[in-house]
Design a protein that fits this description.
Elements (H helix, E strand, L loop, with lengths): L16 H30 L1 H4 L5 H9 L3 H14 L3 H8 L5 H8 L7 H10 L2 H15 L2 H10 L2 E6 L5 E6 L2 H17 L13 H15 L10 E4 L2 E4 L4 E2 L1 H7 L28 H11 L11 E5 L3 H4 L7 E5 H13 L1
Antiparallel strand pairs: 1-2, 3-4, 4-5, 6-7
Helix pairs in contact: 1-4, 3-4, 6-8, 10-11
Length: about 350
């Protein structure tokens, strides 16, 4: 299986001038950002903003910093939240937690769960923190209470942008979100892409937008989609790892068509062999469970099942000779083999 090379972004090799300068600038910016967060909260409580005639502290900060009011409100909210979270505040001050992580934590953390969540935040990259926290809540919360909380937090909002486009934001329970994502992904994988120009193709985000438009205009029609729910000893998740309350599984199980993916004693999915050209549904589940993402670039979208070696060579399809690749990497690999 191909491996992905990763580097430590915290270390800058000698001789890379721009990287070194950027690293220093980020360090200085982080220090200034911590000061701004604390001062914004203090300023909001001081009442000084009222003397200036501003509508609120957030409006005064937004005017001075030339930022949106919602950003200033977020600074104030996080700054005030840190006052009751000494562990996270100390890690933030010591530059062991970024503002991005602190902001994510501040939405869910309480004095009771501050210690375990801050420990998770120290180990997990900022881009994966939200999912890690969701998994922790999934393991430590009452399933019915968690499902009720997610239902209460559902929302869809939209706003007009300066270029006339409309940005829509949705907060959906995991099962509903999984159904929507599954339908969009299935449409993208089955639809024929149309080039914008001779050498320009629509991006994945644009293809998802086209899929959403098709869903709104035409409905699902004859489109058949599959939503895979993983049920393990540690709990239930969607195919991408999103935690799912067990109460949801218990509710839908009587009406659902259930297929089992069998794991061995070490938690590995069991092989399912076949002599047909295309992998079976069960084989696909096994490979997806094993690889999770594109083995070349790490992408999680437009995934395909690649024979290595080629089917024309082996004349069989077994899990050990299948690899998960996104469509672009799959195409590049075969183009490289053909050229060679």
């Amino acid at each position: 299986m191909a491996t992905r090379t990763e580097c430590n972004p915290l270390t800058v090799p000698p001789g890379l001038r721009i990287s070194h300068e950027l690293h220093l600038a980020i360090s200085t910016w982080s220090t200034s950002q911590r000061a701004v967060i604390g001062l914004a909260a203090d300023f909001a409580d001081s009442g000084e903003w009222a003397v200036t005639g501003a509508v609120s502290a957030a409006h005064w900060i937004a005017a001075v910093a030339d930022i949106e009011v919602c950003t200033a409100r977020e600074w104030i909210r996080v700054g005030k939240q840190l006052r009751s979270l000494p562990i996270i505040a100390a890690l933030f001050e010591a530059d062991e937690l970024s503002y991005s992580k602190v902001r994510t934590l501040s939405r869910i953390v309480t004095p009771a769960n501050e210690a375990p969540l801050s420990a998770i935040a120290k180990e997990v990259p900022a881009g994966q923190l939200a999912r890690a926290i969701a998994s922790w809540l999934h393991r430590t919360s009452d399933a019915c209470e968690l499902e009720h909380h997610q239902h209460e937090q559902r929302s869809v909002t939209w706003r007009s942008e300066p270029d006339g486009m409309v940005t829509i934001s949705a907060r959906l329970p995991p099962l509903v979100a999984g159904m929507l994502i599954s339908r969009l992904t299935t449409h993208v994988m089955s639809a024929r892409r149309v080039a914008v120009s001779v050498d320009q193709w629509p991006s994945l985000a644009q293809q998802h937008a086209d899929a959403l438009e098709h869903l709104l205009r035409e409905g699902t029609g004859g489109l058949l989609t599959e939503l895979i729910l993983h049920v393990r000893a540690a709990g239930a998740t969607l195919d991408d790892g999103t935690a799912l309350p067990m109460s949801v599984i218990e509710r839908i199980a009587p009406e659902a068509f259930i297929r089992a993916l069998i794991h061995d004693t070490e938690g590995r999915p069991i092989n399912a062999s076949s002599r047909q050209r295309h992998p079976s549904t069960r084989q696909k589940r096994v490979v997806k469970e094993r690889d999770q993402m594109c083995v070349d670039c790490g992408a999680a979208s437009l995934l395909q099942y690649d024979h290595v070696p080629e089917f024309e060579v082996t004349h069989h399809t077994v899990v050990e000779e299948l690899q998960l690749r996104c469509a672009p990497c799959h195409q590049r690999r075969h183009q490289h083999d053909t050229a060679a």
